[in-house]
Design brief:
By secondary structure, the protein is an alpha/beta fold. Helix content is about 30%, strand content about 15%. The strands form 2 sheets. The chain has a 10-stranded mixed beta sheet, with helices on one face. α5 links the parallel β7 and β8. α1 packs across α2, α4 packs parallel to α5 and α6 packs parallel to α8. The longest helix is centred in the middle third of the chain and has 16 residues.
């Protein structure tokens, strides 16, 4: 029997904020909508393409830099197509400037976070897809605040454009570079905002001037196990990496750690992940937060290995163990190093590729949602 509170917080699916939509932005528009936007401004269609080239191709938002637009209408065109979506509230750095955590205020006052992490071989932006989260996982700072609202496609994309621009301009320690990876592991449950998330992914992979030209293989979309959406993602034809946040191999514990498990069980979530790997030929990542004396027992490592191995050993899955980044006053804390090592050893003995995530930003309110909650 686990020591977790047997009565987890109820799922908070209802948005707290009204249905007022964010300002319409270039990144929200389809090809036909771009043409309509140009007509509404009384401008030729190629004007929108010019703005798109600046935004996606040059990572530029400043009207003054868009000298190919007519000076008399430049500000008006940019205002219509590139309204400000992310207002900086606070920026914190760690790891000698290679980790940059940003707190943003959206148009309606909602707060979201993004984290840019530079490594020797890549640069990754961790983006939010919702303001808050309705999944109510008790060890997660974001989940305890409930769901504020879904973010728009453009609000998601703008986090990526901001990070790519910082890298290109050399504003992150290490000099100018390129943003290579995007992970949907910030605030929110991406699959609960499916339409906007897929729209954002399509903008990321489309070549300029229609998008950022990133590789779908360098984009990771996480989920706590919304099975119908996992199945839908497998049919999108976009080979992103799927990450299933499992956190427990048995329903008894997972019902408490990840309350959505009472709707779709461990077996159903893992089955959907396996089907995704089968259809896309992309290896799935199993995310597993290591929580001291809760889910880090050696027998649970054995059980996790058995569950994953039951689908075959053709390398369809990889386990990513995450040392829990605790929040102030929380009963939850990271596993002991020796328990973490034994967990890894047992999974590898079962033939399951396993790594421990490199922790970043622990000294700057690193846990997802922690900075927003403090603000």
């Amino acid at each position: 029997m686990s020591s977790v509170n047997p009565n987890p917080l109820p799922l908070v699916f209802e948005q707290k904020r009204g249905r007022v939509k964010p300002p319409r932005h270039l990144a929200d528009l389809s090809a036909d909508e771009r043409t309509a936007a140009a007509e509404a401004m009384g401008e030729p269609a190629y004007r929108v393409k010019q703005v798109a080239q600046h935004y996606y191709g040059r990572l530029e938002r400043d009207p003054a830099a868009m000298t190919d637009l007519p000076a008399a209408s430049r500000d008006r065109i940019v205002e219509h197509l590139l309204p400000t979506l992310l207002n900086p509230v606070r920026t914190m750095e760690a790891d000698k400037g290679t980790t940059v955590k940003s707190l943003w205020k959206l148009f309606d006052g909602a707060l979201v976070e993004s984290v840019l992490m530079r490594y020797t071989d890549r640069a990754t932006i961790c983006v939010s897809s919702q303001a808050g989260c309705g999944m109510a996982c008790p060890f997660c700072a974001t989940g305890q605040g409930g769901l504020e609202r879904n973010m728009s496609t453009a609000e998601i994309v703008d986090q990526v454009v901001d990070a790519a621009g910082r890298m290109a301009r050399g504003e992150v320690a290490g000099g100018p570079g390129r943003l290579s990876n995007v992970v949907f592991m910030g605030m929110g449950e991406p699959m609960a905002n499916y339409k906007a998330v897929i729209g954002a992914v399509r903008r990321m992979v489309a070549p300029a001037p229609d998008g950022l030209g990133m590789s779908a293989r360098n984009i990771t979309v996480s989920t706590v196990g919304l099975v119908p959406r996992m199945k839908q993602l497998a049919d999108e034809g976009i080979p992103v990496t799927l990450a299933l946040s499992l956190h427990a191999p048995d329903d008894e514990l997972r019902n408490e750690l990840v309350p959505i498990n009472t709707r779709w069980s461990v077996a159903e979530a893992v089955e959907a992940a396996w089907e995704y790997a089968q259809k896309t030929k992309r290896r799935v990542s199993i995310e597993y937060a290591m929580i001291k004396d809760i889910n880090d027992q050696a027998w649970r490592a054995d059980l996790l290995g058995d569950v994953l191995q039951s689908y075959g050993d053709w390398g369809w899955v990889h386990v990513n163990l995450i040392p829990l980044n605790p929040t102030p006053g929380s009963m939850w804390t990271a596993s002991r190093p020796e328990d973490e090592r034994e967990f890894v050893r047992r999974l590898i003995a079962k033939g399951i590729p396993t790594t421990v995530r490199d922790t970043r930003g622990s000294d700057i309110d690193g846990a997802c949602g922690q900075l927003a909650a403090a603000e």
